[in-house]
Amino acid sequence: MCAKILLVGQGLAGSVLALQAEEAGFDVHIADDDRPIRASQWAGGLVNPVSFKRLTLSWKIDELLPVMYQFLTAVETKFQLKFYTPLNFHRVFASIEEQNQWDVISEGPKGKYYSSKRIENRNSVAVEAPFGIGEVLHAGWLNVPHFLSVARNYFISKQKFHQQTIAEKDLHKKDNMWVWNEIKFDFVVVCSGVSLTEWPSLSTLNVIPNKGETVTLNLPEADWNEMIHFGNFLLPLDTNKYKLGATFDWSPTDEFPTETAKEELLKAFQCHIRTPFQVLQHNAGLRPTTKDRRPILGCIEENGIQFFGGLGAKGVLLAPYFSKMLVAHLMHGTPLDHEVNAKRYLKS
Q: Using CA atoms, how far apart are residues 134 and 116, in angstroms rounded to an integer?
């Protein structure tokens, strides 16, 4: 008889873990309150191997990228649908120093992620790029809302999706099993992002809410199909439709869109790209981040409630690799990497 697992939360982390766990042989159930406002719903879904702040590679990129590709290929095959789109990612250099740094890196061992070719500013839309443009290789984007919707409907069709809120008080232990709604589970994994107030056993986990806002624009004169980064990103979604993002608010008071953030995004856009635009939509959500910028896996208490989250803005890259690690840990007792193990939050 296969082990039964209850996942609380069906954002990006919960959805990826659910599909990975089912593939490994778990009997997966999901409980989610289906809130309309969540980080996963508005997220750009960008995959970018390069951190533009210092032109460094993303943490563990050589390990993360192959697992992400493997997972997304399997999921697209399973559902016969397209979720992921490889796209060129063009970085508008902020200075001549950054351009020179890029040229040096592109000729070195890390060059497989930094194209050495010079990108021409060939778009009909006028992109202000006085110092030139560099191209990031192996970039792309995941249509996160589409992916989440398909995953949710899949588990609904299997009668394994429960649309309701769960708190720790709703669970009890019996014969070393977790019991909820008269169903026994071998494991419970909370994947609810920043919402940990109802989980006392996880209270020591330092999941920091970071508010991000995006704006969806109609650009009637735009005709390019590359992601552009000029301090903010501009992502092509459909014909003349682009997502502009994202802001970072480390001390949010709520998770709703603000005019201040909208004006900040539009001001940056107009400083770098000269083209008519119309605002179609404005969204906000809370990213689950951590102080050390590492995900959180596992449990604090021995044989306690598990957690999977803290993926921040790199969720598409991180989720497949670390959900696979957590599945192996639950199924076979494979140790978790110390960098991501929830027990790092235990007080010494």
A: 8
Paired strand residues for 92: 133
User: 326 - beta bridge partners?
Assistant: none
CATH assignment of 88-138+208-290? 3.30.9.10
User: Domain 4-45+145-206+292-345 has what CATH class?
Assistant: alpha beta
Decide: pTM greater than 0.85.
yes
168 to each of 36, 196, 306, how far by Cα in Å?
Answer: 22, 10, 12
Q: How far apart are CA 223 and CA 221, in angstroms?
A: 6
How far is it, in rounded angstroms, from Cα 284 to Cα 271?
A: 22
- Residue 234, judged by CB atoms within 10 A of its CB (0-12, 13-18, 19+), counts as buried
CA separation for the pair 314, 316 (Å, rounded): 6
Domain ranges of the chain: 4-45+145-206+292-345, 88-138+208-290
Tens-place pLDDT, residues 98-138: 999 999 999 888 889 999 887 777 665 688 899 999 999 99
Q: What is the pLDDT of residues 179-217, one digit of tens each?
A: 999 999 999 999 988 878 889 999 899 899 999 999 999
Query: How many residues are listed for the chain in this entry?
Result: 348
Task: Give CA–CA dist 234/46, Å, rounded.
Answer: 10
pLDDT for res 195: 77
Rounded Cα–Cα distance for residues 222 and 224 (Å): 6
pLDDT in tens, 35-56: 654 556 667 799 999 998 889 9
Residue for token digits 């659910």? 18
Q: Is 102 left (phi over 0), alpha (psi -120 to 50) or beta?
A: alpha
Q: Would you give the DSSP letter of residue 182? A: T
Residue 268, φ and ψ in degrees, nearest 5: -65, -40
Q: Report the sign of the C-alpha dihedral through residues 253, 259, 261, 264, in that order.
A: negative
Matching CATH topology for 4-45+145-206+292-345 and 88-138+208-290?
no
Residues 6 or more apart from 4 whose CB is under 8 A from it?
26, 27, 29, 183, 184, 185, 186, 187
Best CA proximity match to 3, nearest among 332, 329, 331: 331
